[in-house]
Amino acid sequence: MVTETPLSGSRWKMHGVDIAQRGALAGLGRTPFRSGDAAFDKRFTVWQDGVPVREGWLDGPTRAAFTAFFDLPSVAGKGTLWVQEGLLQYINDAPDRLDDAGLTEILDQQVALAVALETTTGRRQP
Length: 126
Known about the structure:
- The chain is an alpha+beta fold.
- It has helices at 38-43, 60-71, 100-122, and strands at residues 2-6, 15-21, 44-50, 80-84, 87-91.
- The chain contains 3 helices and 5 strands.
- A 5-stranded antiparallel β-sheet has the order 1-5-4-2-3.
- β4 (80-84) and β5 (87-91) form a beta hairpin.
- α2 packs antiparallel against α3.
- The longest helix is centred in the C-terminal third of the chain and has 23 residues, at 100-122.
- The radius of gyration is 14 Å and the shape is globular.
- The protein starts with a strand and ends with a helix.
C-alpha cells in the first residue's frame, strides 16, 4: 500500500528523507541523521538523500508528527515514510486488514505530518 501527499512549495523537491522504526529499513551504508532527541533517535532511523535539509528541520513538532503517525493503530509501527521529489509517501508492503476508518486515520495524520514538514522547511532558522 502506498499513500502520498504532495508537499507545497519547491523546497522539498531537492531533498529526500527516509524514516522508519529502527531495524525496519536497511540504510545501505548510509549514516543515519540524528535529531538530538535521544528517545526519538532510539526509536527511529532517519536518512537524508540528496541536498541536506535545512538545519533544525526535525524540530519537536515535526518529531511529534512522525511519532504520532507511527503510533496510529492502523500503522502499528509498520512501513516507511519517504520524502522524494516533493512527495510525502507512506509505504507498507504488508498492511493488515485495513478498513475505511483506518485508511482515513492514516491519511489525516499524513496531512498533519506534511504540514509539519512544510512549516519547518519554510521557516528561517536563527
